[in-house]
Amino acid sequence: KSSKNGDRQGRETFSSGLAVFFATLGSAVGLGNIWKFPYLTGQNGGGAFILVYLISVVLVGVPIMIAEFYLGKTTRANAVGVFKKLKASKFWRIIGFMGMMSALLIMFFYSSVAGWVYSYVVKAIRGDFRVLSKMPFDAAGKAVEAQFGSTVGGTFAPFAWQAAAVAVVTIILIAGVKKGIERVTKTLMPVLLILIVIIAARSLTLDGAGKGLDFLMGVDFSKISPSVILTALGLSFFKLSLGMGTMITYGSYFNEENKIVNTAFKVAVSDTMVSLLAGLAVFPVVFTFGLEPGGGPGLLFNTIPLVFSLIPFGNVLLVLFFSLAAIAATTAMISMVEVPVIVLTEELGISRRNAVLSISAVILAIGALTVHPESLFGSTMIYGKSFFDFFDYLSSNIFLPVGGLLIAIFVGWKVKTKDIGLSFGGGSDDGDSRLAPVYHILLKFVTPVLLLLVFLNAVGVISI
Ligand code: PFF
């Protein structure tokens, strides 16, 4: 039954197709686009990596996103409840439980990085990076690294910034699906899209723009190696928020008429455009100043302040750049935390408010382990990894691929093509249901095999 808010069966839903689009795009667009995508592209050969990434988005990312939307939309249930409603054997609930674990594991380190981003917004507004423009280039490089070191190494500040990031997420989530998630993503995602276009446009007017473009667009096939393929596949997974029930959860807030296939394609295309625009923002600057494209994870926190402090209007751009990174990180985090929140409220009957507060408390308690610099920069903690790297490795290389594989197998082999076709149609079938047979073959045979290869390679069972 529908209430006057358009809720389905007493559950909140997003209020329009546009709300669905911005919420799911808000989940996909995150630090993955602005931080991981440029540095992985830099390290893995530029255009060749991007080409492989695009292929993985089409063959693995989009099919799994559709499968997750299908599960959520047709059952209107949380990531654990889905499998109860479908009367699947208990085994499949593992997808939901692993999803909740992944949400926490990613939040432990992601909230740390989000905290750094928040603090860089404030630093940029205060003009902390202006001194860099008055220094010789080498000294400025050292100074910006020192600033990053003191940001992450402080005794109190990094914990406080992480707590601030988690607090923002907590407040938005307590407000609910419509008044929280929908309102924030609908307001902020258009702002983010405008900001990234402005920054990319500014970068493209620099002297190094041509080289930057060549790097991004020129495909050198000799750079495509098995490890490049596997890295690209893994990134497409993390990027599109797949394999941990996020898209199942958001799919469960869809209305009857919201389109599954159409939304998945629009989100995948827009998310990829944001990644490419982030690349267009970063690489012209890198080449203009003769920096290393393969500079690694420091690209965002070191290179960007350094180079933007040297170009006209750079200080304004810096504020804009870190603001957009903060928006991206925040809307991605709310989608992660929503996964366990809705499971706790619906499966255990805990109030939304208490569910959000207790999960935030767990994130802060354990996430604090990733803040401390020793645990970030190498001293051995668990299985030879720092807590930061351990949480990152465990989630991206094990939990997400296994989750995605199980989702592909479940929807590929346990669901009828006819039912998928019905869900594709939405309120008014304009032909999407005819895609179901082709889609189902892809999900049965192609997607799981590719995923299995990534996973087996990641855990070292095979090495390609
Ligand atoms: N897609 C986000 C990013 O690229 O930053 C990260 C992410 C969000 C991963 C939500 C998983 C998730 F459930």
TrEMBL record:
The keyword Transferase does not apply. It is a multi-pass membrane protein. Keywords: Membrane, Symport, Transmembrane, Transmembrane helix, Transport. The keyword Membrane applies. SUPFAM superfamilies: SNF-like (SSF161070). The chain crosses the membrane at residues 18-35, 47-71, 91-110, 159-177, 184-204, 263-287, 307-334, 355-373, 393-413, 441-462. Pfam families: SNF (PF00209). InterPro entries: Na/ntran_symport (IPR000175), SNS_sf (IPR037272), YocR/YhdH-like (IPR047218). It is found in: Membrane. Belongs to the sodium:neurotransmitter symporter (SNF) (TC 2.A.22) family. This is Transporter. It comes from Youngiibacter multivorans.
